[in-house]
Write a structure and sequence with these properties.
Blueprint: H1 17-20, E1 28-29, E2 32-34, E3 37-39, E4 44-49, E5 52-61, H2 65-83, H3 87-103, H4 105-116, H5 120-140, E6 147-150, E7 156-164, E8 167-171, H6 179-190, E9 194-198, H7 204-217, E10 224-226, H8 231-240, E11 246-250, H9 253-263, E12 270-274, E13 279-283, H10 289-301, E14 311-317, H11 318-333, H12 353-368, E15 372-375, E16 394-398, E17 416-422, H13 424-433, E18 437-438, E19 440-444, H14 448-457, E20 462-465, E21 481-482, H15 492-497, E22 499-507
Parallel strand pairs: 1-5, 8-9, 8-11, 9-10, 11-12, 13-14, 13-19, 14-17, 16-17, 19-20
Antiparallel strand pairs: 2-3, 4-5, 6-7, 7-22, 15-16, 18-21
The chain binds NADP nicotinamide-adenine-dinucleotide phosphate.
NADP nicotinamide-adenine-dinucleotide phosphate (NAP) binds near residues 232, 259 and 274.
């Protein structure tokens, strides 16, 4: 397998971030987008480039609770006219959006990299994934919605139809700032719902650019509203608004749990929570080690380990652990870390100083809990990395599994990797399942009987064989089990979440004939 950009090369020393930031990319002023109007708020915050905190990417309003209420009321007012358009009419506006994304692909990709730090090939992949979702959703508009089904009574026609639920709140994380919002928003609006979107406070400028495209694509006023701000206030106001009928949340388990709890008291509210993971790559004794090592590097360090599907655990059969570990560490030492706008960079910065502290905390716990440290990654502070949130990978080992450890159970959301030695496939799966999460699992084996055992016995929503534990395609489900999600993944699953399935039956006879032989005689 060829090396990914940055892997297998010597760490470059020269910084290029100052010359690569185009002047027009600095200092965007974002606004809330409510009922087709661009609105400021009384207070603002700044979005900083994680590769260079001296670079203010933009200034952002903090939507007040009353502005969130206005946005929900605008969405509610727009709902009747929007739901009465045909699916095809709505799909055509989604198609307009896909064309605009294609037009602006490079500019949007750079903005994703500048605001959330991931290397430019990953910034581009984020936007391309969003484009694919827009294309997929536009295409869905011409496919069957529900279906006709036979009735027990010959003179009756029966249909299963889908109706929109009303106002949908969408709250998203920062790590796929362009794609994840569209995974929720587009199925919702295609089905005839209207939306209030609260993006992450870490990536508001990407969200602002997206809102500009919604306007240009021709979504009528009030159909998609964007409110900026902080989760505990702006987000909380959206979650608790009585006129929000569906909440589509993607983010951490802690926040998802809070959202589920607060919605539990409102019976009309349907909540979808897609959350984190403590994912793993399982390397079995017969694994092709070239594939195993490359899958492990990609699974652990893409987006600097800040993916919900990141493999923070390498569960390796003891028979090949020494070989695997030696080759994995060789690659780890050569990972290029720097500003994501540089083409040679494999790992960009962490999103924030809080992210760096969290990484340090997980590393400290691994040491305290007896992990054998194999690569003691440090915070990078040299001239190349001075003003960014740059850290190196941290890799440690447990020769045998140690249950009840924080480091092997909790999501680190950073380049923090444990190698765990196991005896055979059954122990591998037991160790894999021993967390509260169940999102992504990769197994490396040449034996089809073995991957079938893992397929059927591991808890996950996304399973990969001879691949890294990362990677999504918009037409496939994307979601987890246990603490990773409540089972309403993307694509067709998202349409399920934002619509009611209704039964609709029509009698064509001149008399009433009931099912189950029910008598109609008075
Ligand atoms: P996060 O802290 O849970 O935040 C997610 C979103 O929730 C943000 O918009 C946040 O706003 C908002 N929020 C925070 N507190 C809230 C509250 N009390 N009420 C309403 N909204 C609130 O997650 P993150 O740090 O952005 O993203 C990382 C997490 O997302 C990881 O756990 C990762 O695994 C998970 N993730 C899951 C998937 C998936 O598909 N399963 C995909 C990507 C990421 P602020 O930004 O203002 O705090």
């Amino acid at each position: 397998m060829p090396c990914e950009p940055g892997v297998g090369r010597i760490r470059a020393q020269q910084t290029m971030s100052s010359v690569l930031i185009h002047p027009t990319e600095a200092g965007v002023t974002a606004q809330n987008y409510i009922n087709g109007e661009w609105l400021a708020s009384d207070s603002t915050f700044q979005s900083l480039n994680p590769a260079n905190r001296n670079h203010v990417v933009g200034t952002v309003p903090v939507a007040s609770r009353s502005q969130v209420r206005d946005a929900v009321l605008a969405a509610k007012a727009a709902f009747p006219a929007w739901k009465n358009k045909s699916w095809v009419q709505r799909g055509e506006i989604v198609d307009n959006l896909s064309q605009l994304i294609k037009r602006d692909l490079e500019e949007l990709s750079r903005m994703v990299t500048i605001e959330c730090g991931k290397p430019i090939n990953e910034g581009r992949a984020d936007v391309v994934e969003a484009l694919h979702m827009a294309q997929y959703v536009a295409g869905l508009s011409r496919l069957p919605i529900g279906h006709a089904i036979s009735s027990e009574i010959p003179a009756k026609d029966a249909y299963i139809l889908r109706k929109p639920k009303g106002v949908v709140g969408v709250i998203t994380p920062w790590n796929f700032p362009f794609a994840i919002p569209l995974w929720g928003i587009l199925p919702a609006v295609l089905a005839g719902n209207t939306v209030v979107f609260k993006p992450s406070e870490e990536t508001p400028i990407v969200a602002h650019k997206l809102a500009k495209l919604f306007e240009e694509a021709g979504f009528p006023r009030g159909v998609i509203n964007t409110v900026h701000g902080f989760g505990e206030d702006t987000g909380d106001a959206l979650v608790k608004d009585p006129d929000v009928n569906v909440m589509l949340f993607t983010g951490s388990l802690a926040v998802g749990k809070m959202i589920q709890q607060s919605a539990a008291s409102e019976v009309h509210k349907f909540v979808v929570t897609e959350m984190g993971g403590k994912n793993a790559t399982i390397v079995l004794e017969d694994a092709n080690l070239d594939i195993a090592v490359n899958a492990a590097v990609l699974g652990a360090f893409k987006t600097s380990g800040q993916r919900c599907v990141t493999s923070g655990r390498m569960i390796v059969d003891k028979k090949v652990e020494a070989q695997f570990t030696e080759r994995f560490l060789e690659k780890v030492k050569r990972i290029v870390i720097g500003d994501g706008l540089r083409d040679d960079v494999f790992m960009g910065p962490l999103i924030s100083q809080e992210g760096v502290k969290k990484w340090q905390h997980h590393n400290a716990k691994a040491k305290e809990e007896g992990g054998e440290i194999l690569f003691d990654g440090q915070v990078l502070t040299g001239p190349d990395h001075a003003n960014g949130n740059f850290v190196e990978p941290f890799v440690y080992r447990f020769a045998s599994y140690k249950p009840d450890t924080f480091c092997l159970k909790e999501e680190a959301f950073s380049p923090h990797v444990a190698i765990i030695g196991v005896d055979g496939i059954e122990e591998a799966v037991r160790v894999y399942n021993d967390t509260k999460y169940g999102l992504a699992m990769a197994v490396i084996t040449e034996d089809y009987r073995k991957f079938r055992y893992v397929r059927d016995n591991a808890d996950y929503g996304l399973g990969y064989v001879n691949l890294p534990s990362i990677g999504a395609e918009v037409h496939l489900p994307f979601g987890g089990v246990k603490g990773s999600g409540n089972g309403h993944p993307a694509a067709e699953g998202a349409i399920e979440a934002v619509t009611h399935k209704v039964a609709f039956t029509v009698n064509h006879a001149h008399e009433i004939v009931m099912a189950q032989g029910l008598s109609t005689t008075l």
